[in-house]
Structures are given as C-alpha cells and as structure tokens.
UniProtKB/TrEMBL annotation:
Signal peptide: none annotated. It is an enzyme of class 1 (oxidoreductase). It catalyses: 2 L-glutamate + NADP(+) = L-glutamine + 2-oxoglutarate + NADPH + H(+). This is glutamate synthase (NADPH). One of its GO terms (molecular function) is metal ion binding. Keywords: Iron, Iron-sulfur, Metal-binding. PANTHER family: ARCHAEAL-TYPE GLUTAMATE SYNTHASE [NADPH] (PTHR43819:SF1). Residues 13-42, 44-73 form the 4Fe-4S ferredoxin-type domain. It comes from Desulfovibrio gilichinskyi. Gene3D superfamilies: 3.30.70.20, Aldolase class I. Belongs to the glutamate synthase family. InterPro entries: 4Fe4S_Fe-S-bd, 4Fe4S_Fe_S_CS, Aldolase_TIM, Glu_synthdom.
Length: 353
C-alpha cells in the first residue's frame, strides 16, 4: 500500500529523526514554513515528509534535543555543505584566477582621472534592489548599518543613476547612459528574477568582472570616466572580490547575498516561494518576526567592519593607502590560467610579468 505520492519518492533531501532523542515538542512543526513536519495524531508522534524539505536547516537549529539531521539525498552529505552553493553560482569565476600584486610597496596613484567620490572611504554598499520577496525588517537593518558606518544606501533610487545589466553590450550602454546625464552606473551582475541563491542560468550575459573592466576602459577611451561612479552589483563573495573588482574599475560594490548569509540564510534556493523559514526572503507577517532589525543590523555591521579591516590589510600589502587609488589600477592584479584574449579584455597581465 502506498502511503506517499510517487512524485515525492525521490526527494532532494532526507530527514533523519532520532526516535530516542525526539520528545515530540512540535518545535519543528512551528518553525518549518514549508509544512515538512506534522503531528501524527493517530500515532501520537511528530513525523515529516521528505518531499517538502528544502534543506534550510531551521528545524535542525531549533531542535532542543538535537534529534534531527538533514542530508542531501543524492550524496548523503550533511546539508550544511550546500552553503557552498553561494560560491558555485558564480562558476566559472574569473576573480579566482586574479591575484593581488603584493610585490611592490610603492604607492601607485592613477592620476589620469579623479572618480566621483562617495561619502564613505569604504568601497561597500548594501544592495536594496531584489527580484524576490524580502523582509522589510532587513531593509531597515541595512539602512541602520549604512547610517552607522557612513555608507550610501538605496543608490539605485536616486536621480542620475542608471542600472545596466552585465550583457555583451554593457560598454555601449554605459557610454550612452553617461552621455545622457547619468552620474552613477550600477552594473548588475546577477540573473534577473532568479533569486539570490537560485541555480545559475548557464551562458547568460557577461561575468561581472569582464563587464566592470570593459566599462571602465570604454569610459576612459571616451573621456567620460571622471564624470561617473561605477558600482558593481552582485556575485560578491568575500573582501578579496571587492578589492579585485575595484582594481578592475569599480568605484564601489554592492552586497546582497552575503548580507543575507550574515543574518542566517542557508542558501536553500527557495527564495521565490516567499516561505523562507529564516524570515529573510519573505513578506509573510509571521515569518518576518523571525528577523529582528536591531540584531540583523548588528550582524551586518560586524560583517562590513571585518571586510573593511581585511581590505585595509590588502591595500597595505599592495602599497596603497586609499581604496580610491586602486580604482581602475589593473597593474595591481595579475592573472593565472587565463587566455591571452581574456587577459586582454580584463586589461591585466599574467603573473610573473
């Protein structure tokens, strides 16, 4: 006799419940927004349905006795390994093949242009633009952190700001935007509508690092670089990515995905459902309460402060005092394993040169 529908016979995740540890407290039932756990009144125990599990780890985290374990059904590795999906979504990542030049300790300042300056020396902003439901408490937290650390916020909503996708005509779009009065260009390097941790649509658009490099060079060739600030938005994983993108030509980078990880996102890839059990990618009133804006702001502030410290250390190693002096200074990075064409587009040399 079938107890489950066949469509759920091959779930992506399997839940292991230790019967000796489970006390049937129903905390997992209340915490799961996907209806995975339920009270079996006939048997008087809490049970679960694997086919509904998205692997967000909310139930595992809140289980008071540690009775639950979620595994990837395909590999039987603990689900926590899916956090690496945040890195996999940008493969092939050319930033991993770019190395910072730490050999020369002289301060190199690019005097050919003076980019528009932001209110903060930090090259980091929060991205308030999203293609999925987002908890308004987190937007409040981002604003609080921005005010605390002196960061710009909601740049996309300002006048004379133009967002352009990292498509193959990105350089032409950037030049046209500046000629039409844009003072800030936001290069969007994420998949529109895909959600922050959804699977990558292969061969779509242009890698963000190439988009930033070609826009920077094209604006210089047109004599327009000193009239605009370039912001790289999307696919930022760590502080080293920030430094490399600035060297390729970005004045500032926007953080979105990483900020969500800082407040508890486990990268389950179900943002578009609006049922985020961690209260992140959702507008549901009950789930929104799971994110306290003050607590979230503190976590985000810690993240930004740590990254700023790491960025300062990297600049010191490269012999640079201010992050603005690195903007578009491609001599400060070297490539490993890239073709001559790729290095030519990026405007960088191979390591050892």
């Amino acid at each position: 006799m079938l107890f489950h529908k066949l469509t759920g016979a091959y779930p992506e995740f399997t839940i292991s419940r230790d019967k000796d540890l489970c006390i049937n407290c129903e905390i997992c039932v209340r915490q799961c927004s996907y209806g995975v756990h339920f009270q079996d009144t006939a048997r008087g125990i809490v049970r679960h349905e694997n086919s509904k599990c998205v692997g967000c780890q909310r139930c595992v985290t809140f289980c008071p006795t540690g009775a639950l374990l979620i595994k990837n059904a395909n590999s039987f590795f603990p689900q926590i390994g899916l956090i690496h999906n945040h890195f996999k979504q940008v493969e092939p990542c050319y930033l991993d093949k770019l190395y910072l030049d730490s050999c020369a300790f002289d301060t190199v300042v690019n005097d050919s242009f003076s980019p528009v300056q932001h209110t903060s020396e930090s090259p980091i902003l929060f991205s308030s633009k999203t293609s999925v439901p987002i908890n308004l408490n987190l937007l409040t937290a981002m604003k609080m952190v921005s005010e605390k650390l002196g960061l710009d916020f909601d740049v996309a909503g300002r006048m004379h700001t133009k967002s352009i996708p990292a498509a193959h005509n990105v350089a032409d779009s950037a030049v046209n935007a500046v000629k039409n009065g844009a003072e800030v260009l936001i290069i969007e390097g994420f998949q529109p509508g895909a959600g922050p941790f959804a699977s990558v649509i292969p061969n779509e658009g242009m890698p963000i690092e190439f988009a930033v490099a070609v826009v920077d060079q094209r604006l210089k060739d047109e004599g327009l670089r000193n009239k605009v600030s370039v912001i790289a938005d999307g696919k930022i994983r760590c502080s080293a990515d920030v430094v490399k993108l600035v060297a390729l030509g970005a004045n500032v980078v926007c953080l979105g995905n990483v900020a969500m990880v800082a407040v508890g996102c486990t990268c389950c890839g179900q943002c578009s459902t609006g049922k985020c059990a961690w209260g992140i990618a959702t507008t549901a009133t009950v789930l929104r309460k799971r994110q306290n804006p003050e607590v979230a702001a503190e976590k985000m502030a810690d993240l930004i402060s740590a990254w700023n410290c790491e960025i300062t250390q990297m600049l010191n190693v490269m012999g640079i005092t201010f992050i603005r002096d690195l903007c578009g200074n491609k001599d400060k990075i070297r490539a490993v394993g890239l073709s001559d064409t790729e290095m030519s587009i990026l405007g960088v040399r191979h390591t050892g040169q």
